[in-house]
Amino acid sequence: MSDPRIHIIEDRLSSIKSVVAVSSGKGGVGKSLIASTSALILAKKGRKVGLLDLDFTNPSTHVILGAESAMPIEDRGIIPPKIHGVEYLSIIYYSRDKPAPLRGEDASNILLEILSITRWSRLDHLIIDMPPGIGDAFLDIIRFIKRMKFLIVTTSSKLAFETIRKLIILLLDLGMPIIGLIENMKISETPSIREYMKDYPVRFLGEIPLDLKLEEALGDVEKLLKTRFAVKLEEIIETLMRRGLI
User: Listing from the earlier edge strand, what are the strands of the sheet with 86-90?
Assistant: First the structure.
C-alpha cells in the first residue's frame, strides 16, 4: 500500500512552476553555496523563490543565509519563513544543531513528513539543496518529487568528476532532465571538465573561479552577492533564464 503522504506532496508542490535540484556526486564542491546563492539571485530578479535544504549529511544553507534564528510557522502544516526574499526551509529545523545519522526507513519517513507538511506559496522556482551522492535519501527525493530538473555541481578534480559521471549516468538512465553542469572553485586554466563533458549529452554551463574572500561573506547576504563567485553565478543564471532553462 502506498503512503498517502506521497499524494499530499504532489498537492503541496502543485503551485510551483519549476523545481530545481542542485546536486553533486560528493560533498565539498560548493553545492549548498550554489543552491543558496541561486535562490537569492533569482529573488533579486523578481522571481518568487523557495529554498529547501534536504542535505541530511551536512545542512549548511542556514549558515550561508544567516538564517539560524528563523523558524517556520505552524498553520495546517508548516509555513516556511521568508529570508532575504526567499521562502526557506531546512532539515536543520528538525535536527537543530545535532547530527542526524538517519538511515533507511527513518530517513524516508522524515523526508516524507517534511515534503507533505510544508506549505509553499505560489512560486516560480523551488531550489532544493540535495544530499550529496546517489544514496537512499537522494533516490527517495527523486521518487517523491516527480518533476525536478537537475543542476549539477563539480570541481576541477578528477576524483570529483568520477562521482559526477556516475550521477549523470544515473539521471540519464532514469530519464531525469538535466539543466547542465557548473564547474566550481576553478583554480587553473585547464579545460579538463569541459573536455570530459563532451562525452555526455549535458550542457557545460560555465566555470566559477575559486574565491578566497567567499568564506568571510557567509551569513552576510549583501556581501555574498558582491563576491566574484556570486557575480559569475549570476551570469550563468541570467543565461539560463534567457534560454528558458530555469
Answer: 82-83, 86-90, 49-53, 123-129, 16-23, 148-154, 178-186, 204-209
